[in-house]
């Protein structure tokens, strides 16, 4: 093969293998739009976390198909119901049959049974995410799939949940991650409760997780020297 042909082939491979591997079985989507989407490619069925805006659903489906996990998608787990995280879930659930998990408080907001917690969400609710028909209730103490633990971290939304998978902590928008692996408060104008958000930040800061996987910003792998002690 000519050098030019090799470059074309290698470029095509890069386009067809877009996911970023972070840790064992854990990847960050490259085609989700709005927020970081993650995939846990576990034996027995893959788990998709926060697939992004509604208009990113087609690209996420294509990405999962290229990776060979589309037919093995078992669950879609949402840290919270904001459209930039949950907007694509309904279509993905419909086309794959994967069960969607979302907290009861955030599901009630999406179903317009209760008012959104902030003015900005009231505006965005016009284009709000849709709760999939097969949605199940995500709550602390429930494992959507074996090994995936749920931690209640309200504040950004009333029903915000963080997810623990081995040494990985998917924190959604409960906090922002600094480059050194410490956490800081999310943007206050977007939080439904500053007090709850502060308590959730303290809780997450005490976890002994190696990988911190936020909804926005770069995932961070913490060194042993910077991980909290006494947690």
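-> sequence recovered:
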């Amino acid at each position: 093969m000519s050098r030019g042909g090799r470059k074309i082939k290698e470029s095509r491979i890069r386009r067809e293998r877009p996911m970023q591997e972070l840790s064992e079985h854990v990847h960050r989507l490259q085609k989700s739009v709005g927020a970081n989407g993650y995939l846990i490619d576990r034996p027995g069925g893959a788990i998709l976390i926060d697939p992004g805006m509604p208009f990113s659903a087609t690209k996420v489906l294509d990405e999962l198909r290229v990776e060979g996990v589309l037919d093995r998608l078992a669950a879609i787990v949402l840290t919270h119901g904001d459209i930039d995280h949950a907007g694509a879930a309904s279509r993905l659930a419909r086309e794959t049959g994967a069960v969607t998990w979302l907290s009861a408080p955030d599901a009630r907001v999406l179903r317009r049974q209760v008012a959104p917690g902030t003015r900005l969400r009231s505006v965005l609710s016009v284009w709000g995410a849709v709760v999939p028909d097969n949605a199940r209730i995500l709550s602390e103490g429930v494992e959507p799939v074996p090994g995936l633990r749920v931690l209640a971290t309200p504040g950004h939304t009333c029903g915000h949940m963080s997810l623990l998978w081995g040494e990985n902590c998917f924190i959604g928008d409960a906090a922002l991650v600094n480059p050194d692996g410490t956490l800081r408060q999310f943007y206050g104008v977007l939080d439904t409760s500053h007090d709850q958000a502060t308590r959730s930040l303290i809780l997450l800061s005490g976890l002994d997780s190696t990988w911190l996987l936020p909804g926005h910003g770069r995932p961070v792998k913490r060194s042993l020297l910077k991980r909290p002690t006494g947690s």
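Residues 1-15 have pLDDT under 50 and may be disordered.
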